[in-house]
């Protein structure tokens, strides 16, 4: 039942530095600076610099080797053209503050535009330049080879340190890697090593906690984990689609009616394979999603009309915690309730506290899961907090990530 994923070795940053003299050479680095921005005294500023900090070790290592750096990242979801709210200027400022040096940035129409090309050409030796948002160019998401050729012209080598974007076959993650001598950055390598412990003979029992809104977002990983995990805990709104599949009533809770048959099949498969699939016994419900709304606890399979489940209830929290207490490996992706709106954060906070205290190998992935974990202040008690939500799910599912595949050693 419990399989492993065989993967080819990667060309790493250390291999690149050992095999090539980077002194005076230019390195194009794909980073993941897709960070939240907020209004500050001087305009937009970075609200959470976690992803920027995660890239610092690779940047420092390349600078120590004498390289001149050209960094590229996407930010937000612009529609293939410049949008002021998604410019990389605030990110460049914050990176410069963290590094204690200037990070060159020029407001342009995109990372491969003529003015961007001229700006890169003028970069002094040893400098760091942050290109404009890669998604200002519609060719990025099309994995366009011509855009990749322009980016490749900026450098002698390419390093991908953006695990969070590794599941996308884009010009900055896949095409350009095939045009230059390439390597995985330290963050990328660390993510792959940490996540491989979930797929290659994990310590057992292996318990998975999956939350979030939609079954459709987690369908592939659920089906894959039925061959790997010993138990799967389902929380968040996605649990109500499973409750419907079991014949329950869920009131006004969020469901995906077209996936009820799929959920039923998953429940049957779990039973056939001896995998415990645990749904929340009860739910904290309200008639509207408001912090001051009246709340009531109902069985998750018997929620009255006019009420909706927004968090797991006290019995579910107790049962989830008891199952986790015996785990030796835990993978958690997705909050168990609408944790941004108290009091619907209680279940997620309780489970985060349990996971953080386990004598087990623990991995948390996904932006919402990380935000929920950060709210508890328990990040340092987790063995690995993944910077890639979708990428970590697809890796655990066994999918070949295009941005990783392009870095495999010949």
In short:
The protein has helices at 13-19, 50-64, 89-99, 114-121, 145-152, 171-175, 186-199, 215-225, 238-245, 260-273, 314-325, 346-356, 367-376, 389-397, 402-405, and strands at 26-30, 37-40, 43-46, 68-72, 128-130, 157-160, 182-184, 206-210, 231-234, 249-250, 276-278, 282-286, 295-299, 302-303, 308-312, 329-333, 361-365, 384-386. It is an alpha/beta fold and 410 residues long. It has 2 domains: 13-189, Phosphoglycerate kinase, N-terminal domain (Rossmann fold); 202-397, 3-Layer(aba) Sandwich (Rossmann fold).
Describe the structure.
About 35% of the residues lie in helices and about 20% in strands. Residues about 1-5 have low confidence and may be disordered. The chain has helices at about 15-20, 50-65, 90-100, 115-120, 145-150, 170-175, 185-200, 215-225, 240-245, 260-275, 315-325, 345-355, 365-375, 390-395, 400-405; strands spanning about 25-30, 35-40, 45, 70, 130, 155-160, 180-185, 205-210, 230-235, 250, 275-280, 280-285, 295-300, 300-305, 310, 330-335, 360-365, 385. The protein folds into two domains: about 15-190, Phosphoglycerate kinase, N-terminal domain (Rossmann fold); about 200-395, Phosphoglycerate kinase, N-terminal domain (Rossmann fold, 3-Layer(aba) Sandwich). The longest helix has 15 residues, at about 50-65. The chain starts with 12 loop residues before the first helix and ends in a 5-residue tail after the last helix. With about 400 residues, it is an alpha/beta fold. The protein has a six-stranded parallel beta sheet with strand order 11-9-8-16-17-18, sandwiched between helices. It has a five-stranded parallel beta sheet with strand order 5-4-1-6-7. It is globular. Helix 8 packs parallel to helix 14 (about 390-395) and helix 11 packs parallel to helix 12 (about 345-355). The chain contains 15 helices and 18 strands.
């Amino acid at each position: 039942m419990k399989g492993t994923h065989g993967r080819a070795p990667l060309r790493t940053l250390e291999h690149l530095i050992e095999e090539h003299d980077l002194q005076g050479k230019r390195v194009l680095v794909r980073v993941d600076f897709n960070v939240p921005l907020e209004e500050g005294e001087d305009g937009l500023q970075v609200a959470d610099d976690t992803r920027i900090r995660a890239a610092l070790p690779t940047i420092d290592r390349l600078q120590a080797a004498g390289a001149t750096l050209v960094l590229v990242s996407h930010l937000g979801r612009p529609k293939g053209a410049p949008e002021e709210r998604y410019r990389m200027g605030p990110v460049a400022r914050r990176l410069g503050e963290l590094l204690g040096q200037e990070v060159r940035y020029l407001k342009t129409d995109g990372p491969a535009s003529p003015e961007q090309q001229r700006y890169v050409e003028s970069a002094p030796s040893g400098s760091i330049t942050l290109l404009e948002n890669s998604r200002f160019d519609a060719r990025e998401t099309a994995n366009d080879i011509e855009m990749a050729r322009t980016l490749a012209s900026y450098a002698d080598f390419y390093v991908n340190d953006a695990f969070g974007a590794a599941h996308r076959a884009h010009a900055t993650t896949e095409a350009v890697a095939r045009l230059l001598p390439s390597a995985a950055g330290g963050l990328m390598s660390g993510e792959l090593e940490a996540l491989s412990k979930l797929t290659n003979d994990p310590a057992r029992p292996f318990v998975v906690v999956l939350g979030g809104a939609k079954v459709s977002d987690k369908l592939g990983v659920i089906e894959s984990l039925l061959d790997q995990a010993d138990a799967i805990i389902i929380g968040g709104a996605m649990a109500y689609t499973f409750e419907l599949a079991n014949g329950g009533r869920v009131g006004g809770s969020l469901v995906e009616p077209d996936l009820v048959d799929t959920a039923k099949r998953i429940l049957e498969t779990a039973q056939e394979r001896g995998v415990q699939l645990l749904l929340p016994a009860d739910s904290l419900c309200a008639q509207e999603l408001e912090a001051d709304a009246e709340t009531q606890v109902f069985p998750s399979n018997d929620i009255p009309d006019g009420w909706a489940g927004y968090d797991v209830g006290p019995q579910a929290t107790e049962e989830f915690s008891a199952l986790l207490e015996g785990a030796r490996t835990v993978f958690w992706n997705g909050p168990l309730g609408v944790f941004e709106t108290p009091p619907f954060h209680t279940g997620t906070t309780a489970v985060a506290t349990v996971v953080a205290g386990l004598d087990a190998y623990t991995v948390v992935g996904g932006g919402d899961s990380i935000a929920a974990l950060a709210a508890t202040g328990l990040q340092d008690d987790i063995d690995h907090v993944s910077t890639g939500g979708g990428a970590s799910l697809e890796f655990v599912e066994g999918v070949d990530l295009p941005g990783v595949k392009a870095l495999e050693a010949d």
